[in-house]
Amino acid sequence: MAGLLAYIGYTLRRQPADWPAVWQHLRQTNWAGGWALALLLLTPVNWALEALKWKILIRRVEAVSLAEAYQGVLAGLALGFALPAQLGDTTGRVLSLRSGRRAEGVGASLVSGGMQFFVALLFGTAAWGYQLVTVPSRNTPAGWILAGLLLSMLLLGGILVPIRHRLPKAHTRRRWLRQLLTYLAVAGQYTPAELTQAVLVASLRYLTFSFQFYLALRLYGISLSAPDMLAGIGLVFLAKTITPAFNLLSDLGVREAASLWVFAPYGLAVSLVLTATLTLWLVNILLPVLAGLVWVWRLKWSVSPKPMG
Questions:
Q1: Which of 75, 135, 140, 234 allows an S-S link to 295, with CB 3.0 to 4.6 Å?
Q2: What transmembrane ranges does the database entry give (predicted)?
Q3: How far apart are CA 97 and CA 104, in angstroms?
Q4: Measured distance CA(233)–CA(217) in Å, rounded
Q5: What is the pLDDT of residues 16-25, one digit of tens each?
Q6: Coil, helix or strand at residue 184
């Protein structure tokens, strides 16, 4: 996705951010208004849905309550605040388990993350298709190549589901790939009903935090037609999903850069777009991270390190 990163960088250079205006917007935010209250109230719902998905997938390894799953998710979110990619998230969830089946726990976490990735890819591909035919600046050879790549990724995901039982038996000389396949052995244990249930929860969660993004945009007076708004939100989360997570602080900056790129054709005020995306990060990431630190502290005292496998 180097081309996507380069294009986002090009867009950012053309739209210099007025950071003093962003901070001013943040200070003037009406947190007692309907948009802000709805945004805040959906935050625990968002992470409760993630906990429910985790509960469904981890029960093949260990039966946990929804409250325990919620604690594991928040612990993972807090660790992910400082560690790159999915490392912190997986670590927090696995350390929350009581059993020593850590390798299978890692596999369940990878399946959970992969499932949310696929949902974002599905909605994002549809959003990109909409912009291809409605936004002239997107209708380029590069835009159609990107569409082809996205469809190929969806096809690959569809192929992996029916052959998931064979993955642990695959032969490879690469040690890291053999270890990954060992982690993914749990994927072959899920029934179609369990996978369907988890995908539905992942989709509901995607719609929840997408609606939160809409609320954050409306909080700062940003309004577009419904199709344009939905496509823009879908593309922001697509860009965030497929962009390598080199950033710390839970990808702070990725969503903001993607938002400027996505909404550039609509001529929106850069400072307002940045303020909306920062607000979403503060509400949906920073606040839950602060709550998750409690569970990270408890993990430090209640869990002793055990070898994986």
A1: 75
A2: 31-49, 108-130, 142-163, 269-297
A3: 11
A4: 10
A5: 556 788 888 8
A6: helix
